[in-house]
Amino acid sequence: MMNDLVRRQLEMSLATLERTRNDEALVDAVARAAEATAQAMLRGGKLMIAGNGGSAADAQHLSAEFVARLTVDRPALRCVALTTDSSAMTAIGNDYAFEQLFSRQVEAIGARGDVFMGISTSGNSPNILRALQQSREMGITTIGYSGNGGGKMAALCDYNVIVPSETTMHIQESHLALEHIFCMIVERCYFGPEFGR
Question: Which of 17, 115, 116, 190 sits in a 20 to 30 Å window from 36, CA-based?
């Protein structure tokens, strides 16, 4: 019985990945967002990433791939997860509001020409929406990784990667695959098309 559950859940995950693979707008958004991020980094900019819960873990995971490496040794790339500074986050949450957790950090360390990636499976996380608004005000390129049709954040993003699902865990599974691909494309655009082959 549990074996059937395992197979059924894997089938559902694979079905989401298949829909994601066949979504031309999504595939194009990943590629264009990665190209824009590489160009920003080549001009001295950085990538800032934020999310809540499992998406916070994704932010840290993806940031580690940029700062350390994805698959091949290369120089570090400028990236920071805004989900890791517990002192800043608790101070902002306590002194201001949970909705400002990431927007205050963008205000503090972001600069025109940077890139901000917000990850929200619902597309409606208030603190991600505030960070996207702050980024746009500062001339920072915005990328949204979401599901559920994109939610409110879709209107605030220069590039929307919207997984065609309403199931949180399957959205997250697809996000992780797409985040790795995003990093790989940034590397190729930054270091040259032959990098990593």
Answer: 17
Q: CA 98 to CA 82: how far, in whole Å?
A: 13
Binding residues for Zn(2+) are: 61, 65, 172, 180
Q: Which domains does the chain have, with CATH numbers?
A: 2-191 (3.40.50.10490)
Chain center to CA of 134:
16
pLDDT tens sequence for the chain (197 residues):
899 999 999 999 999 999 999 999 999 999 999 999 999 999 999 999 999 999 999 999 999 999 999 988 999 999 999 999 999 999 999 999 999 999 999 999 999 999 999 999 999 999 999 999 999 999 999 999 999 999 999 999 999 999 999 999 999 999 999 999 999 999 999 998 777 66
Backbone angles phi and psi of 162, in degrees to 5: -110, 105
Beta bridge partners of 120: 146
**In this structure, are residues 103 and 130 in contact, taking their beta carbons and an 8 Å threshold?**
yes
Q: Contact, 63 vs 81, CB < 8 A? A: yes
Binding residues for substrate: 52-54, 65, 94-95, 120-122, 125, 172
What is the rounded CA–CA span in Å between residue 181 and residue 102?
A: 24
Residue 114 tokens, joined: 């940077």
Q: Annotated binding site: which residue ranges?
A: 52-54, 61, 65, 94-95, 120-122, 125, 172, 180
